Structure formats: C-alpha cells, structure tokens
Amino acid sequence: xxxxxxxxxxxxxxxxxxxxxxxxxxxxxxxxxxxxxxxxxxxxxxxxxxxxxxxxxxxxxxxxxxxxxxxxxxxxxxxxxxxxxxxxxxxxxxxxxxxxxxxxxxxxxxxxxxxxxxxxxxxxxxxxxxxxxxxxxxxxxxxxxxxxxxxxxxxxxxxxxxxxxxxxxxxxxxxxxxxxxxxxxxxxxxxxxxxxxxxxxxxxxxxxxxxxxxxxxxxxxxxxxxxxxxxxxxxxxxxxxxxxxxxxxxxxxxxxxxxxxxxxxxxxxxxxxxxxxxxxxxxxxxxxxxxxxxx
Length: 295
Known about the structure:
- This protein is an all-alpha fold.
- The protein has one domain: Farnesyl Diphosphate Synthase, CATH 1.10.600.
- The protein has 15 helices and two strands.
- Helix 3 packs antiparallel against helix 4 (66-83), helix 3 (46-57) crosses helix 9 (170-196) and helix 10 (201-228) runs parallel beside helix 15.
- The chain is globular, with a radius of gyration of 18 Å.
C-alpha cells in the first residue's frame, strides 16, 4: 500500500512544486534552473507524505495539505543544498547526482537555497496557494519558522558542525538530531494536521509524540545505512560520517543496539497512533518504512 500511496502523493506535490518553480523572467532562468535541479532530483518526498497523511488521519482531504507539503519539501531541499556546500559537509553527490554547487557553482547554489527557503514561507502565507483561514496560515508559518530556524534545523546543523571529532553521549546526540532532522519531520506532521482544520489538542499531542519518535528513528536509520549500505544505493558518499569522525548511533551504541533502538522508536510512534482509526494507516506504514528503507 505504501508504494501506491507514495506515488500518489509524489505526483500531487510534484505538480504543485512544478507550478512554483517556473522562472518569471529570462534573466532568472539559471537561478530557477538550480532551484528546480535541487527539488527534482529524485527525493522520496517523505516530508510531504507525512503532511498529506496527517491531514487525512484527521479526516481532511489530501489537497488541503498541498501548500504544507510544498513548503516542507522546499525547506528540506534548501537545507540539503546548503548542507552539501564546501563550508558545511562538502559533498559532491546527492541522490546519485552531482550536488547543486557542483552542477552549477557555489554562488548559484547558495542563492538557490535562499530562494527555496523564501518560497516555502511565501507558499504558506499566500491565500492563493494556501486557502485556509488566516489563523491557520499563521499557525503553519509559525510552526515551520520554528522548525527551520535556530530552535530547529539550523540549530541542529550548528551543533553538528561543532561536534565533529567529539564523543557525544546519547542525550547530546539526540538533542542534535531532534533539531537537525526531527524538527522538520515534526513540522511536516503538524502542518498537515493544521491543514485538515480538524486538529484538536489531544490529536495534535498524539501526532507530536508520533512525529518525535519517527523523526529520531529516521536519523538512527540514516546512521545505520551509512555503515551498512553503499554509495550507489544511498545516492551519496557512504561511510563519510565515519571518515569525518562524526558522532553516530552505531558508533555510540553499536550496530545491533542502534537497530534495536530504531525499532523501539517505531513502536513508540505506532503506540501514539492508537487513538486513530484506519484513516491513520498511511502514518503507520510510513513509521515502518522509515526504519526499513535501504536508502
């Protein structure tokens, strides 16, 4: 089921993203080409899937979450462009393709990331793209800004850069990843729930618990794949975390214990969804997919 659901959601969000990434004038074509390259380079669209699935879990129709799905994917794409830069992780490969600064140039990549970030907030603020009432739009903007900024993803990246070569304990490692990876996953679920316009506090709390668990599970599985997989399968350089002496869950806990922890987090996520009916089945399947994926 998840494959069909994933395909349906990917087609929906890709059509919406395509409409946002058309150059408005010839002199901006190179910039927009770099932005499109960064977005349409084979991503699995997990964050848009979570936005759609959270909306549907609360009885909303998937198209109501189009703006949320676009916004979280635009933020994710911008973050990867900037993470890959020489000043950050200095990667040449992303999803099996040259990274944006390699395919274009470093200055163009920086501007493309800036453009994607700004566009994400424009999509949520503009009633043409996000036709919810103003209070809902404001709540969505606030949630995404908090997740993307120093209290979330940007803060996590800063912690990550400052942790190279250091040995972190599990609590410190989780703090880093709840910011760097988990915050945007949590925002994806929250934005989708808000888009349903049926989200009460108990539902938001349950979905927050779910999202915190899968957000951390996603990173644990990423760390496991960096050990077990290969560059061709991953679409990025395998073993780079180990080579750069970055703190990871397998390095801290051991590979078998890291795998057990990923499954424990999946089970926490599934437990949080017990109050929901069959409409939340895509969320359940996504929790399983996150710890079973091979790339």
